[in-house]
Amino acid sequence: MGADTGLTAHETQKSLEIRLRQREAEIKMLREISDVIGGTYSLQKVFELVADRARHLIDAETVTIPIITPDQSTYTYRAAVGEHAEELIDVTLPLEIGVCGWVFRHRKPWWRGMLDQLDEHERNRWEKEAGTLILVPLVGKRQFLGGIAGINKKDRREFDRRDLDLLTLFASQVSIAIENAMIFEELAEAKQYAEAFRERLEETNQRLLQTNEELQHLALHDPLTRLPNRTLVTDRLHQGLLAAKRNEQPLALIMIDLDHFKEINDTLGHTIGDMLLISVGKRFQQVLREQDTLGRLGGDEFAVVLPQADRNDAIVVAQKLQAALEKPVTIEHNRFSIGASMGIALYPEHGSDPSGLLKGADVAMYVAKRNRDEYAFYNVEHDKYNPDRLELLRDLRIAIHKQHIGLAFQPKLDIRNGCISAIEALARWEHSDKGRIPPYDFIPTLEQTGLIKPFTLYILEQAVTQCKSWQDQGFDISVAVNLSMHNLRDIKLAPHILEILRRYDFPASKLTLEITESAIMNDPEYSLGVLAQLDNMGIQLSVDDFGTGYSSLSYLKRLPVKQLKIDRSFVTDMMQDQDNAMIVHSTIDLAHNLGLRTVAEGVESADVLDALQRMGCDIAQGYMISRPLPPEELLNFLHSCRWPTPRIQADRQGEAKAPGSC
Ligand code: C2E
Ligand code: CA
Ligand code: CA
Question: Superfamily assignment of 24-188 in CATH?
Answer without folding.
Answer: GAF domain (3.30.450.40)
